[in-house]
């Protein structure tokens, strides 16, 4: 009897030891997984998943010389980057140099100078180079990722801390412009427009054209100019067409905005006239077209918070304040200094 009890106790002890060993192995595995997860979180920069670029698509297409954050307007004038307070209107120079593609994001102003990507704080200070690219011709900041086009037509990307720099196209197609939003890239080679993922995968032709000179991708709608005609591809990523049509516009200088009713409108230049065309919606059966002002020698068109900015052929920058009134607009234009 005593022997049997001893055998039972030994068996129980062995079972306990085995179970304890299994438990310790399980706890160790969980610990390794948790440590790996914690390391991944701490070693990888936080990505907010920003869907839109820091600068408006239309502003990037004109060289990014006028942009805005929540508190400031930034613009290039006479070889200087000017910061203007939206509240007080006070202006100050925060940088001097031949810069383009201003992109404000999270307290930093990113830009291209001498083919490289740089950033400074909103208030100025020492510039810091981002990555090693030295032949950048276009740049868009999307959260903690910066997408850029090189002079050889290759699109690349780099983290805003300069890490994980890579090419996302292989050079088999020479791109001339791109836009990044809604976690996709739209790029053109001057003839067609292509859609791809932000790592360059699944590249496909979105638009077959012949002479693409400009494209603006906003709110998932793509406006593009082919042979002097502005056309529209609606809901590129979501694929949710509202059933409305777009008549098209014969113009090459244009930008996009929404009015106070959140109605899409194109601002464009035609025959020396700066005009606004409100597009069809499910409650607006027809397009409406309005004259804003007579202009001459205009070479670009920026939209910031409903106001317009444009340069003439002499390099002068103008600000047009727009106030919507019943059945039209009232405008006031001033020269920026």
Describe the SSE topology.
Layout: H1 2-43, H2 57-61, E1 66-68, E2 72-77, E3 80-85, E4 91-96, E5 99-105, E6 108-113, E7 116-121, E8 124-129, E9 136-142, E10 145-150, E11 155-159, E12 166-167, E13 177-181, E14 184-188, E15 192-197, E16 204-208, E17 212-218, E18 221-226, E19 229-233, E20 249-250, E21 254-258, E22 264-270, E23 273-278, E24 288-294, E25 302-304, E26 307-311, E27 317-325, E28 328-335
Antiparallel strand pairs: 1-2, 2-3, 3-4, 5-6, 6-7, 7-8, 9-10, 10-11, 11-12, 13-14, 14-15, 15-16, 17-18, 18-19, 19-20, 21-22, 22-23, 23-24, 25-26, 26-27, 27-28
Question: What would you say this structure looks like, in words?
Answer:
- The chain has helices spanning 2-43, 57-61; strands at 66-68, 72-77, 80-85, 91-96, 99-105, 108-113, 116-121, 124-129, 136-142, 145-150, 155-159, 166-167, 177-181, 184-188, 192-197, 204-208, 212-218, 221-226, 229-233, 249-250, 254-258, 264-270, 273-278, 288-294, 302-304, 307-311, 317-325, 328-335.
- The chain has 337 residues and is mainly beta.
- The strands form 7 sheets. A 4-stranded antiparallel beta sheet has the order 1-2-3-4, with no helix packed on it.
- Strand 15 and strand 16 form a beta hairpin.
- It is elongated, with a radius of gyration of 27 Å.
- The model is unreliable at 42-46 (pLDDT under 50).
């Amino acid at each position: 009897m005593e022997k049997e009890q001893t055998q039972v106790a030994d068996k129980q002890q062995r079972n306990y030891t085995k179970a304890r060993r299994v438990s310790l192995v399980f706890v160790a595995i969980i610990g390794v997984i948790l440590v790996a997860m914690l390391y991944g979180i701490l070693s990888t920069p936080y990505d907010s998943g920003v869907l839109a670029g820091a600068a408006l698509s239309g502003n990037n297409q004109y060289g990014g010389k006028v942009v805005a954050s929540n508190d400031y307007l930034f613009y290039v004038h006479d070889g200087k980057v000017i910061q203007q307070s939206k509240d007080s209107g006070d202006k100050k120079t925060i940088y001097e140099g031949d810069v383009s593609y201003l992109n404000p994001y999270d307290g930093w102003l990113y830009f291209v100078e001498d083919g490289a990507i740089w950033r400074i704080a909103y208030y100025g200070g020492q510039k810091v180079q981002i990555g090693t690219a030295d032949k950048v011709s276009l740049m868009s900041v999307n959260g903690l990722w910066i997408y850029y086009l090189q002079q050889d037509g290759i699109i690349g990307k780099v983290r805003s801390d300069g890490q994980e720099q890579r090419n996302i196209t292989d050079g088999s197609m020479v791109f001339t412009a791109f836009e990044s939003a809604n976690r996709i890239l739209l790029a053109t080679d001057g003839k067609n427009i292509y859609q791809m993922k932000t790592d360059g995968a699944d590249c496909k032709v979105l638009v077959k054209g012949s002479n693409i000179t400009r494209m603006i991708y906003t709110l998932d709608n793509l406006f593009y100019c082919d042979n002097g005609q502005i056309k529209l591809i609606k809901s590129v990523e979501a694929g949710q067409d509202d059933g409305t049509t777009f008549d098209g516009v014969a113009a090459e200088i244009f930008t996009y905005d929404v009015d106070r009713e959140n109605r899409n409108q194109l601002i464009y230049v035609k025959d020396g006239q700066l005009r606004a065309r409100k597009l069809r919606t499910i409650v607006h059966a027809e397009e409406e077209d309005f004259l804003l002002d007579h202009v001459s020698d205009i070479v670009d068109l920026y939209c910031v918070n409903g106001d317009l900015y444009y340069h003439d052929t002499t390099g002068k920058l103008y600000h047009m304040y727009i106030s919507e009134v019943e059945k039209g607009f009232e405008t006031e234009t001033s020269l920026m200094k």
